[in-house]
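Quick one from the shared queue. A colleague (R.T.) flagged glutathione transferase as missing a structural entry in our internal table.

Convert sequence to structure tokens.
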Amino acid sequence: MAEEVKLFKTWSSPFGLRIVWALELKGIQYESIDEDLTNKSPLLLQYNPVYKKIPVLVHNGRPIVESLIILEYIDETWKQNPLLPEDPHKRATARFWAKFGDDKAMSSLWPILTKQGKEREEALVQATENLKFLEEELKGKRFFGGEEIGFVDIALGWLANLVLVVEEILEWMLEFSSVPAIKENLPLHDKMVARFRTYLAAALDK
């Protein structure tokens, strides 16, 4: 019996894109369902009644939520092209940097674009410091995990489509974006710019 794999996402969400990239790298066939977050479908609410958000992976009728958790589930379920290393310490380190990306790097970049004056200056200092940590972790490596794309690269893949060019990790961004499974599933730049401008205008109005 064929496996049923469905992914509830939006076309621009970096969290949904993580799952797309992981499934593509693993060669897993899946049904992609783009949600309208202003009018969430009954299925999304059924599969994620607690957080009511994307992404949601549904595997043979069973939902898995939260993008980093979904990535680990994918890696444990489909063993080909592993995303996490076998060594326990390296696995723990990969999880640390993925969480750092969400908790520190991503949250520090947004205020640079939405704040002004002193708040923006402070955010710039913090974001630069966070990116320096990532740069240090990348030194001497093609990808965060070494020569092959892995868990941390996918978790931080949202950096590859930033409107801003982050010089500190530009080389990694170019390597990451050149991998066929990633390149073929990056949102169109013009669409991302338009979406970004909409978010930015709304943030500045507030």
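The mean pLDDT is 87.
Residues 64 and 139 are 34 Å apart (CA to CA).
Added to the table.
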